[in-house]
Design brief:
The chain is 59% helix and 2% strand. By secondary structure, it is mainly α. The protein has two domains: 207 residues, no CATH class; 251 residues, no CATH class.
Length: 603
């Protein structure tokens, strides 16, 4: 029987641009509009300096003008690359036109937001100077031109005539870039270093934004710009190089992270960086439990609290009921060991549960921990934790005579208290990353993944599911306790209200779980990026604190709809959540005549 039907999707249906324009005219419009938007950034956007950023200066862009300038340059480069200009063709190894559209959307969104913010804060469009109108019109022209460019991929044959929304979404897709030719090792290492250097600059700029209007514009441009770079294939090329030189990439990332506190002149911004590392480290520990082993833990923040309380009790604080002072290394071991013990004690009787039942039990543990810390106040129970007042006045750490609470001069740059704790937490993060990476690549890590995918099948293959789940629970708890020991000293005090399931101020279990899901379960960089975003955005946009949980919910809904595998996904998740055209079951084709090895039954 001839089975020649091909059940895979074949993309052969021609696709037309959203706005029907000749290709040459569309690209010329994009280039001209981007150039006009760029020129407008050198003109005054408003007449008064009451709007943050002082946009009244001609010839010197500032604040939101800088963002429009950067976006216009990026759009120009992508658009000119489409002409095949030598020296620019390397910018678009993947998509040729979708990066142009995304960059133009970023410029239009940033410029439009700036004009709207100026009008809203100063009382009308009359407060806009000609420079703002020039950049706004230029951004609109560039967007119209980008919408007239041909799409990079034809439509799927199964849906040759999508609606307008489908056409817009399809215009933002791009093919995978072809494999690049190998370069000398020194050149590839330089590219990796440059990539991490750009990442450090963008991250430092985002943390260093001094007012909410600039930070919102930064988020708009960064979101569209990052997606444009991804569609262009540059991120794929960089990922290939980092996979090829993995140790060099890890070292470059570590060096870039070390340089961060030296780029900050405000101690508050360095403190934000330290807190981001604390919560990113805890999210990595949760990633062992959720991302690798597939155990839904809704009370994970309690392990952070156990480590913090254990370190506070042995820190030498005057309010400590124990009245001892351990050196730092002993306090770290105490916090990690206490969290590990609690992880084993809680996990042993509960890990035989699965799914929602396990989630409810862990949620209860998190609340029991907070209530217990409240009740150990000398009235409702023994006087151990000072009740709701917590343990304040935790002294700064001193490691080998180096007092982390005092500023120090390093290579002519003053390293503040927050910078000191940032570097200490960076060392802890590096240790946690190493533990996570080694665990994930080990036999135990593969067994965790097997349990996550199908525990029944894993058990049938001889895997001791309970023992390995308990090991994951204990390892994740100890990593959270490690971060908790540093958090206690950074914040000077620990109180029960810091460790809730959900709240407007991180850390909380909902925040940590959202960081893992948003970043990408089972990856290393995913929870780091997710924790950075979820901590940085509320810290910069404090006027949105009341709506934080609502915004988290909306963000997760959008993520589940458009990118369920997270911002950073491994290959397994990409294959699981997206159609690849590959058949789940190989097509049953008859053997050719004359083939050998066929049994009598015809199998």
């Amino acid at each position: 029987m001839d089975k020649s039907n091909d059940t895979t999707k074949v993309s052969t249906a021609p696709a037309t641009p959203i706005i029907p324009l000749p290709q040459a005219a569309a690209r010329a419009l994009t280039v001209a509009g981007s150039a006009v938007a760029l020129i407008g950034t050198f003109l005054a956007w408003t007449w008064t300096d009451e709007f943050p950023g002082n946009l009244t200066v001609t010839g010197y862009p500032g604040g939101l003008q800088v963002l429009t300038l950067v976006g216009s340059v990026l759009t120009l480069l992508f658009a000119l690359s489409g002409y095949g200009i030598p020296g620019l063709r390397w910018l678009t190894p993947g998509g040729k036109n979708s990066p142009v559209l995304l960059a133009a959307l970023g410029v239009f969104g940033t410029t439009g937001y700036a004009m709207g913010a100026i009008s809203q804060e100063l009382g009308g469009l009359v407060n806009l100077e000609p420079g703002a109108w020039v950049s706004g019109i230029g951004a609109l022209v560039a967007l119209i031109g980008a919408l007239g460019l041909p799409v990079d991929q034809p439509y799927d044959a199964g849906d040759p005539t999508p609606n307008l929304w489908g056409r817009i979404r399809h215009s933002l897709t791009a093919p995978e870039p072809a494999r690049a030719k190998d370069l000398p090792s020194w050149a590839e290492i330089l590219i990796i270093a440059a990539g991490f250097g750009v990442g450090l600059y963008v991250f430092a700029y985002g943390i260093g934004t001094e007012y909410s209007e600039l930070f919102i514009g930064f988020l708009i441009l960064t979101a569209f710009g990052f997606t444009a770079v991804t569609r262009a294939g540059l991120l794929k090329r960089l990922s290939h190089l980092t996979a090829k030189h993995r140790n060099v990439a890890m070292a470059a990332a570590f060096v870039a992270a070390i340089c961060f506190p030296f780029t900050q002149t405000n101690d508050q911004f360095a403190l934000i960086g330290a807190n981001i590392l604390i919560f990113a480290t805890v999210a990595l520990g949760l990633n062992v439990v959720v991302g690798l082993a597939g155990l839904l833990d809704l009370g994970y923040v309690a392990f952070l609290g156990v480590g913090a309380y254990a370190a506070a009790l042995v820190s030498g604080s005057p309010q400590s009921s124990i009245g001892v002072e351990f050196p730092f290394w002993a306090a770290v071991l105490t916090g990690a060991a206490a969290s590990l013990i609690f992880g084993v004690v809680i996990g042993a009787p509960t890990l035989r549960l699965r799914g929602d039942y396990l989630a409810i039990v862990t949620l209860g543990f998190g609340e029991i921990f907070r209530i217990t810390m409240n009740n150990l106040n000398g009235n409702s129970g023994p006087d151990v934790t000072n009740g709701s007042n917590g343990i304040p006045n935790i002294p700064d750490l001193e490691i080998f005579g180096f007092n982390l609470g005092l500023p120090h001069d390093v290579l002519g740059t003053e390293l503040t208290r927050s910078g000191n704790y940032y570097l200490l937490m960076l060392l802890c993060t590096a240790i946690v990353v190493l533990v996570f990476r080694r665990s994930a690549e080990s036999r135990i890590g593969r067994a965790w993944v097997a349990i996550r995918e199908d525990e029944t099948a894993a058990t049938a293959m001889g895997i001791n599911g309970f023992r390995l789940k308990l090991l994951a629970f204990a390892l994740g708890a100890s990593l959270a306790g490690l971060a908790g020991t540093v958090q206690a000293h950074v914040s000077y005090s620990v109180t029960p209200e810091q460790y809730q399931f959900a709240g407007s101020v991180p850390p909380n279990s909902a925040f940590l779980l959202a960081a893992v899901i948003l970043g990408g379960m089972g990856t290393i960089s995913g929870p780091l990026i997710g924790a950075a975003l979820l901590y940085l955005i509320p810290a910069k946009l404090q006027f949105m604190a009341e709506y934080q949980l609502l915004l988290f919910g909306i963000a997760l809904m959008l993520l589940m709809r458009f990118r369920p595998e997270g911002l950073v996904a491994d290959r397994r998740k990409q294959l699981e959540f997206h159609e690849t055209g590959q058949l789940d079951v190989p097509e049953d084709k008859p053997l050719p005549e004359g083939a050998t090895g066929v049994a009598k039954a015809g199998a």
